[in-house]
């Protein structure tokens, strides 16, 4: 399985800078210098974030980008959906799929991941004092466990 996309990693760095600016507009040029990325690449990431209403653009001489909402109101699953895409293990959508071993297991795992991402805010991610909660018991106690993992 592949790791996090570079677009998600850089996007989170962008959002961290915007959160640290506390509502003040941050220019793409400042972000490019700070994150050592090209202006064009950052604009490519900011556009879908703006469309998803995670960031807002501010026009004018003192314009730039800012978070559209406080960091504690932006859920990680929103950001991941825009910059990474959904985590899909069994994309057939068919319970009788012959390619995937036990599609119900994979769909349950996808649900667990979605719920975990929805429970975390941008504020949780950018503040190093916050530690992720252990979510393993939720996965282990799933209904698919009774007959074995099925994998």
| End-to-end CA span | 15 Å
Instruction: Determine the oligomeric state from the structure.
Output: single chain
Average pLDDT rating: 84
Rg: 19 Å
Q: Under the CATH scheme, which architecture would be assigned?
A: Orthogonal Bundle
Question: What is the general shape?
Answer: elongated
Overall number of structural domains:
1
CATH superfamily: Winged helix-like DNA-binding domain superfamily/Winged helix DNA-binding domain
Structural class: mainly alpha
What is the tally of helical segments?
7
Contiguous runs where pLDDT drops below 50 for at least 5 residues? 136-141, 144-151
CATH classification, class level: Mainly Alpha
Beta-sheet strand percentage?
5-15%
Enumerate the strands of the largest sheet in spatial order, edge to edge or round the barrel. Answer: 1-2
Order of helices and strands: HHHEEHHHH
Tell me the helix content: 40-55%
Largest sheet: 2 strands, antiparallel
Using the coordinates shown, work out and report the CATH topology: Arc Repressor Mutant, subunit A
- Strand elements, count: 2
Describe this structure in words.
The protein has helices at 6-20, 28-35, 39-51, 76-83, 103-118, 122-126, 136-140; strands at residues 55-58, 64-67. With 151 residues, it is mainly α. It has one domain: Arc Repressor Mutant, subunit A (Orthogonal Bundle). It has a two-stranded antiparallel ribbon with strand order 1-2. Strand 1 (55-58) and strand 2 (64-67) form a beta hairpin. The longest helix is centred in the last third of the chain and has 16 residues, at 103-118. The relative contact order is 0.14. InterPro entries: TR_Rrf2-type_CS (IPR030489), Tscrpt_reg_Rrf2 (IPR000944), WH-like_DNA-bd_sf (IPR036388), WH_DNA-bd_sf (IPR036390). This is Transcriptional regulator, BadM/Rrf2 family.
